[in-house]
Amino acid sequence: MKSYDHKKIEKKWQQEWNKKKIYKTTEGDKTRNPKYYVLDMFPYPSGEGLHVGHPKGYIATDVISRMKRMQGFNVLHPMGFDAFGLPAENFALKMKIHPEIAVKKNIKRFKEQLGVIGLDYDWSREVNTTDPKYYKWTQWIFLQLFKKGLAYESHEPINWCPSCKTGLANEDLEGGKCERCGSLVEKKPLRQWVLKITDYAERLLTELDLKNKDGSLLLSWPESIKEMQRHWIGKSEGMLFEAPVKDTNLKIQTFSAHFEAFTADTFVVIAPDHPFLKELVKNTPKEKEVLDFSANLVKERLSDGYETKEVKGIFTGRYIVDPVGNGDLPIWVASYALADYGTGIVKCSAHDERDFVFAKKYNIKLKKVIEPLYIDTKGASAVRADLPFVEREAVMGIVKHWQEDKYLGLKWKQIDWGTFVTGGIEPGQTPEEAIKAELEEETGYFKFKSIKKLGRRHAKFYHPPKKENRFGHFNHFYLELESGEQKEVSQEEKDKHEVVWLSKDEVEKFLVSEGQRDEWHELQGKEKVVLDGILTEPKELAGREVKDVREDAIKYLEKNNLAKRKTTYKLRDWVFSRQRYWGEPIPLIHCEKCGVVPVPEKDLPVKLPKVKFYEPTGTGESPLAAISKWVNVKCPKCKGKAKRETNTMPQWAGSSWYYLRFMDSKNPKALVDKKKEKYWNTVDLYVGGAEHATRHLIYARFWHKFLLDIGIVSTEEPFRKLQSVGLIMGPDGRKMSKRFGNIINPDDIVNRYGADTLRLYEMFMGPFDQAIAWSEEAIIGPRRFLERVWKIAQKVSKNNSSSSIEKLLNKTIKKVSVDIVEMRFNTAISSMMILVSEMEKAPDISLKDYKKFIQILAPFAPHLADEIWKNLGEKKSINLSVWPKWDEKLMKDEDVKIVVQVNGKVRAEIVIAVDAKEDEIKKLASVAVSKYLTAGEIKKVIYIKNRLVNIVV
RNA sequence: GCCCAGGUGGCGGAAUUGGUAGACGCGAUAGACUCAAAAUCUAUUGAUGGCAACAUCAUGAGAGUUCGAUUCUCUCCCUGGGCACCA
Fold first, then answer.
1. Which helix (H) or strand (E) holds A941?
2. Taking the model in full, what pTM does it have?
3. ipTM summary value
4. Is the pLDDT of residue A305 over 60?
5. How far is CA A199 from the centre of its chain?
6. Whole-angstrom Cα distance, residue A943 to residue A295?
7. Which of A122, A116, A124, A121 is nearest to A12 (CA)?
8. Nearest Cα to Cα of residue A658 among A690, A703, A698
9. Cα separation of A474 and A28, whole Å?
10. Burial track A522-531 (b if 16+ CB lie within 10 A, e otherwise)
11. Chain B bases closer than 7 angstroms to a protein Cβ
């Protein structure tokens, strides 16, 4: 027998598969087989070609599709190219080749590289987003969006990248910089087409959790990606307040998601780039000053990439009349206010982190309506879940020494507590009287220079001496002693605690109560913002915890007509035009008389004109604007003078629906045939990089839902199961990049080790969704494995199976079948490695067993498998054979090894029959470990079936 | 700062509902084959002690629950990814 020659074998079988078209997908009406649609995120054919990281996902889908095909599914596993957009255009500009030619060349190279890996794509369905036959339908979808009012023109300032010379969506920014080139983005007013994705915000959010009829989740996606989308959509429910601006006819609206403390509002902030600002300060003495300041702030914010944490602002000179009765509130411009969240104007109070900082900085008056509540959860005073709370009005006093800068603390004797003076208020006492009485009782001091009332704080805690849960309402005081004169203290009090005088530093370490410590800090001028606690206003809600009053606060505000419910989203509408050449032309016409007119559907596609110069103009106009022959057209409505829209679509457009086109890639009459769409339904498995979690995957879901609404598709969601691929890093552990010179080319690996080895290695490296560094050394393992598989063929005989091999084989078939579905390829491969080393040890291997093994190996190493298959006398490709089934009966073990532990430590192993009785096993076990049992009597024997016996001594 | 995922030998990683930690692979060491090398095969390979049987310690750190914890709970540290003035 010849040795394993991957070069010969792989080339031969790739040609054979192509010739016989064995991977061509059958149309739905020509088969009764159930369908399985597995899709890779199609690549952007860059000029640099593939590195070994790219095909990792493709190999995984290839393995799954091959297994599914063998299991009788009608598999759709297509591939295409996403080739419009900036990278291709910039590459073309740099290399001075027309993008169309460059893209063609790059695609050819990509296909060659994919080809040598032996992937089972049905290339007859290939799509290319830059093909007019394809982008005809991208334009068609845009027209439908336009007709439904979901595409609109916006003249608001947009993000402009001065280097790419194009407008960008918020999503294309990275901390205020252009994601592609890293240059600072400017705001520039430009006419843009924008898609109203916000109309779908609620559905995009809730339908992430859509359920099947049986109650299971429709979308089987990684929770992390769902979570990212939820954050991206950023739903927040709150209240909308409307207020007149004093001395004007103007009104403003403010939004608040945390409105419970609405009576605390003392000022208002507006975003520096808020469109309303100009009108607000018009004809006021501060007009120029405020606008200049704001303009500066916007500039600063942009250049700092939104990273400024220091807040800045200016008073506008205007006031609102607060609708909830807090009087006239000054309006400030504040750097931290965002124009495009909520209404861009906020009512502010002491009970918000940023508002608080801002107010402190500019000495704006604050009002507090939440008193802090502390709940002890740790240590001796942790609240007991089983006890009710005893409510008490109480006092606490910080007492200063009559001479020194020292403060009075009580060191408790029964427990490890350090506190200030505290105590309850007796009936008929005022808090002042109570604190004085407590102090005298506990310490004997009674002569005061001054007494000052501080705040009120509440605490829930367990009181160990009293053995009860307390809910104390503490009135805090600051007292200065006049002299050290003392009265006699009772023995009872003396037994409870010791009086100590502490320096400021010592106080810090001494205190155990967070509430006392906060009060102490506030006394030193370090005030903390209060976000949660007990509300003191309005009367109707007073005394309740903030977190419990939300619903009642809404009712109160609505009943009194003070505010309305309102939901806002972080999700912004989608800036859908680019001022560049290399993209789908937006199929609209601007007519002098009729305004914006859609290109009639029969005239689609609007082809991108072939031009010599396609450099960005830099003026904010697309290069297409300069091509008068293309631009000037007749209005489709009135036949008058008109011009084409010259903006093009963003790169995301073509990829937002390509998965539908694969179902029916050649159809000239429809985006996708209705019957075919019904048959292929939804993508069963979608594999790609997690970096597309929030853009591509949200845009595609948006378009899909729109297409559902207009009756083009019949499903709610495009991708049922989503799996992210972990990156393959360079051997140095860094991202593979030209810059680091750590790129591994798959062609070299295929040459040296073969495609089957590459495939096996990439699947064996580790968990599929995890990033792992490429290892030049470890790849030899899978290669050796394949050589051993190849050699076993020499031992194949017509004899009956050996029962031990048969048993292991069945177990392996099961493991591989299950692991592939769950995308745990590494463990599937390791189980096959175990089988192979057992086969090597056996004197001979039955033909039947060997064939089954080669079949389960075939999805991973299809070339080698087909070659062996043929050598074993089979005529048809192994990839079309029927996936072997495992037989549970043959997998049963007769004996089982049981571990015997003494006190949880392994001391012996015994082998017993599977059906042995528990008593018997326990007996055997205690005999096996008898020498460890002499120490004491047996307390307990734990038996876990087929696993272990644990004897507790 | 917030959210998510993760931390296991020299390295990549395994470990069903809590039940023998280190499967499988790489590397390393020794031996066989060879004039020699490579390749291949065989054996060993978490650490420490011991000639050995064996013992003790080990899954980022610390605590807890349990007969028993890589797995569950809490606190902290570190790494990767995402978001970041979101009212």
1. strand A940-944
2. 0.92
3. 0.95
4. no
5. 22
6. 76
7. A116
8. A703
9. 75
10. ebeeeeeebe
11. 3-5, 11-15, 17, 19-21, 23-27, 39-42, 55-56, 67-69, 80-87
